[in-house]
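Table S2 (text version). Query chain:
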Amino acid sequence: FDEVAVVLGVLEDKDARGIVAALAPIAEEILVTASSSERAVAVADLVKIVRETAPDASVEEYDTPAEAIAAARAWAEREPRRGVVITGSITLIGDALVLAAEDGWRR
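Corresponding structure-token output:
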């Protein structure tokens, strides 16, 4: 891929700043959300961390993983050689797998 959008949700006990610092160099867009876990960092708090850690990053915030993933997929479809990375917590990956199965885009 030439460009990558990162859908990001992090759990409270994880190093959110370290995760953002590692991902920011590869991300054209960072789409912040919170997984369904009660331990998920609130979207507003994670957006603040992303903006402090990667001030040059393009950041968008979404209330649900479904909204963030849909926006990332739409972004990727607008141009060739774009990809989406969903990461930050295993619970966000679980949410994504459920969405993929329900919507029929899981491969």
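Notes on Table S2: Helices lie at 16-23, 43-53, 65-77, 90-103. The first strand starts at residue 3 and ends at 8.
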